[in-house]
Amino acid sequence: KEGDSSSPEVSSPLRGSHPLLTAEEESLLIRFYAGRLSSLIGPNATMNRLKRDIKVLATASLLFRRFFLSNSVMVFDPRAIMVASAFLGSKVEDAMVDVRFLEEGT
What we know:
By secondary structure, this protein is mainly alpha-helical. The protein has four helices and two strands. It has a two-stranded antiparallel sheet with strand order 1-2. Strand 1 and strand 2 form a beta hairpin. The longest helix is centred in the first third of the chain and has 18 residues. The protein is elongated, with a radius of gyration of 18 Å. The chain starts with 13 loop residues before the first strand and ends with a helix.
């Protein structure tokens, strides 16, 4: 049926009862979680087991931001992507960390 609000062709600014995020709000969330990366992994990590060189933090931050250049925070959980970026950044820089420690650090 044309004009039916439940059909996929009709776009709505509301999903359920919650409005969708604006571009500014998405950008704010990305900056927030990118900033939290420094307390998760790197020289200023809150857990001693996760203290690594600054290159690991820089790589993780780069991967996190590049992921969200083409993906939305409304589709992918930024916290999960933050942990995945930290893990992958540690692998790329040859400073492996155990995923369990990353999970504990969040």
